[in-house]
Please model this.
Amino acid sequence: MVLEKAPVDLSSSKFDVIIIGGGLAGLSAAIHLSKSQLKVLVIEKSSYPKHKVCGEYISNEVLPYLDFLEIHVFELGATAISKFEMSSQNNKSLKAQLPLGGFGISRYTLDEALALKAKEKGVSLVMDTVMDVTFQSDLFTVRTKNGQDFNTKIVIGAHGKRSNIDRSLKRDFIKNKSPYLAVKTHVNGDFPDDLVALHNFKGGYCGVSKVENGIINLCYITNYKAFKQYKDINEFQQEVAYKNDALKNIFKSTSPIFETPLTISQISFETKNPVENHILMCGDSAAMIHPLCGNGMSMAIRSAQIASELIIDYLQRKIESRLSLEKAYTQQWNKEFKKRLRMGHLVSKLFRSAYLSEFMLFLVRANRKILPYIIKRTHGKPMRIR
Model:
């Protein structure tokens, strides 16, 4: 554990930035901001290390930035990935080289490394749950479950897919139920180190790749309405996922590490605003790209970089007003991610249909330039460091 359990006496510290959520986006921003000697508080509801439902594949676009944050993923055991394989519901498949490549690393390992680095850099990390955030007279008050109030100039929302904060802010997406459920497990077995695979089944798809220590990560997303027709995860896998021969072979030939798979429901891909009530939203709090694009972790880290650089400029008076800061973040966020998200929605729509996914595979086989083009449109370029 690297977090202090609240309540703690932090009243003597005036924070420049408070970050709600200590995942990829929140911790990356905390480390970045601390490198400019800013006082940062991260409030995270869980201790480290911990597993999360996640595909655990990251595009190489983030490597320069992670090096800047002093997080060296291959020293942590990350697996280099350069190849991609995809199969349809009807067991047709294709393989390709990834244009930029990526790596596999578990959230268990990466989040803990980020948390330890943040603490090393002087970031205050507190284990608590944020219940409310108010903004008045150009100052935020952040109230936690344990009854503490913290004041700050800037708040970053990095609290994930859904939380109480979204409800208190009355964000539009939180009013609607989402039909998606995700399941993740780690297994031991044979699978190529350099491959990330995406296998489709009726109503969903499963990502497969290795993380550190030769462990295979299996993470799939499906429609909850279809899932609840079966009594449990095992029956769903056998009756639905196993219709894909590649998935059946992987599940049958491997042994589970987790006693019980991790699950998360109410996953929303609806549009969110990158700024809400003057809070800069990062990672899944700002938007979620469909997991089949394999780029959510990269987007979270990149959004942290964008927010951090602008916040530093604002606090150093290079950006003249809060309104200018919020406009600049919204513009840069949209420029970086809006087209990626649009492509992600399109590709997901194609793969929900057995006919369209088969047709797409036919087109990709006929023109090998199509798949690299789609991958590039859902990924970014290597991140530049200021």
